[in-house]
Amino acid sequence: MSSKDDVLIIEDSPAIGMLLKNYLEKLGYTQIYTCTNGFTAIETFKELVTLKKHPIVLLDYMLPDMDARSILTQMLEVQPNARVVLETATEKDDEGIKDLIRLGIYQYLEKPIRFENLKSIFETIEKEQSFFEKESKQVEILNQEDQTKIHDQINVIINSSKQISLSLIEQLIGFSNESISFYLKELEDKGKIIRIDDKKEIACNQCDSVKITQTFYCPSCKSSNFKLGKLIEHYDCGNISEENTYGNDMCPSCNKVIKALGVDYRVMQNHYICNNCKGFFSEISTDYLCLKCENKFKFDECRWKTSPNYKTISM
Questions:
Q1: Spatial separation of the C-alpha atoms in residues 231 and 220, rounded to whole Å
Q2: What is the pLDDT of residues 211-249, one digit of tens each?
Q3: Is residue 221 part of a domain?
Q4: pTM of the complete model
Q5: 75 near 8, Cβ under 8 Å?
Q6: 187 membership: H or E segment, kind and range
Q7: CATH number at residue 122
Q8: Is 306 part of any domain?
Q9: Three-state DSSP class for 267?
Q10: Cβ–Cβ < 8 Å for 311, 163
């Protein structure tokens, strides 16, 4: 990176705030702002964004005047791609923390803070920033022929989708650049597309790509070889197996005839049956897979990206 981003520390303990500031200065960060309450933090954040800054935010979970959820929500309204690092001693699997991660927390920093963990997070941010700056410089030197090719790519992408976000268009083309937004505005003015509400999408927590797919598997043996079906539980012997195993209304375990629903047996609708381990479950396990870097992650580990969403009218 040619220069370090600004940093906004939101911490109600002046001592911790000073320790964080001193350590970040050692990492080369010079523009560091500290706030001890939510109100001042939000005002400072707005001022920085007005100055075309993209500050890295260190946010304490609990502050005297408001909680992290309120602060995060207000910051994302100002800058949807804000990089907010949550500091907390609360476990990551706590429902309140999971909710913040779903809302758009960029990273989670456990308290008491270990400086090596803080350094690792900031190094990751620097690498990502360097990558996007490099892409931006490469795009600036595109000639007219390249621009025409990009426009053709955008036309194909939009024509094959009823709705698509700017983030996904950029991922499919391979880079981010203002020329893409300019061309989309041109298509919008011509009535080819219309801009609808902004779209918030799951993004890879490693490379920030929104080219994501879900993978589903058995929670017991991790196999993806499963099916959806009905199960029957026979009350007398406790047997639970697939509906098709009860031939002639006879239990395959005790060979007794089942007669009255609710008295002799019950039907368990919409259960997943693993073809490998023969286990059954009402819900399947799922992971997210990044199609760009092949990173696999859980829902509560994902990032969120918000960008304009477009609907195709005619192309």
A1: 18
A2: 888 888 899 998 888 888 899 999 999 999 999 899 999
A3: no
A4: 0.49
A5: no
A6: helix 178-189
A7: 3.40.50.2300
A8: yes
A9: strand
A10: yes
Same domain, 192 and 248: no
* Token pair 């790519």 in the structure block, residue: 153
Residue 109, amino acid: L
Give percent helix, percent strand, percent coil of the chain, each to the nearest 5. 35, 30, 35
Using CA atoms in the order 215, 220, 221, 222, what is the torsion angle rounded to 10 degrees? 10
Claim to verify: residue 188 and residue 240 sit in the same structural domain: no
Do 133 and 182 share a domain, yes or no?
no
CB 94 within 8 A of CB 113: no
At 264 the pLDDT is 93
DSSP 32-50: EEEESSHHHHHHHHHHHHH
Q: Distance between CA atoms of 170 and 209, rounded to whole angstroms?
A: 9
Model confidence pLDDT, tens digit, residues 252-298: 999 999 999 999 999 998 899 898 898 999 888 999 988 888 889 99
| Count of structural domains within the chain | 3
Domain with 132, as residue range(s), is 7-137
Q: Do 49 and 127 lie in a common domain? A: yes
Q: State pLDDT tens for residues 75-115.
A: 888 887 789 999 998 887 788 888 788 777 888 898 889 99
Does residue 90 share a domain with residue 125?
A: yes
**Do 70 and 63 contact (CB within 8 A), yes or no?**
no
What residues does 195 pair with on adjacent strands?
Answer: 310
